What we know:
With 248 residues, the chain is an alpha/beta fold. 45% of the residues lie in helices and 18% in strands. The model has no long low-confidence stretch (mean pLDDT 97).
Amino acid sequence: MKVIDYIMRELEKYPLHFSLIDPEKQSPEEAGEMAEIAEKVGSTAIMVGGSTIPEQKLVDDTVKEIKSFSSLPVILFPCGAGFLSRYADAVFFMSLLNSRNPKYIVREQAEGSLIVREFGIEPIPMGYIVVEPGMRAGEVGEADLIKRNDFLTATKYALAAQYMGMKFVYLEAGSGAKESVPNEMIVHVKKNIDIPLIVGGGIRDPATAREKVMAGADIIVTGTALEEIFFERRLSSIVKTIKGCKRV
Ligand code: 1GP
């Protein structure tokens, strides 16, 4: 089954949680253990990504370890063509829509296109929109950050993504952000699009995750919450809370 079909099937049941692992933040073996726990607590997919491109072998080794410890699909969440791995199941073939630099909108994607084809990994088109504070993703991606009260601009980018044929919209506040994407922005965006909405950045507890889902997020991504020691209990309560909500 294609990864996108699996995600769509799971979304019919409840809102979802994806776990983000950055290959540069731990050893491949530790990444494998994190993925095992993520699957155990009910996360639906493992995203592998980061804001800088590590040695490509590190991406390969990390994906291989994750695959050997977990049966969840591995979706690459790359910052560039050098981040691709043939061992992954799929790749968010993403465009940073509010970047000032064409490199992050389409040029890096052109570089990666033939590699994705050669590796045989499933491309999943996704519109990526970076909201204040944006953190490293905003800096590295040279984003014209969406202001936290500018719901209209966020909505325009999201609907443009849908009209360009992208399958998901991702509202990103940046990894480690003190403030996650504002609930009201999620409400506005969700009201105006028909494709699933992914929200991530700065979500570290069940209450915040619930707020985002109640506002309209279909999929919640957490990365930092997995990096903390003894993250299993916290991640478990985040995932249970998300799956216990009704999709908006
Ligand atoms: C970053 O949205 C993700 O791309 C996850 O952010 O690390 O803050 O959970 P956190």
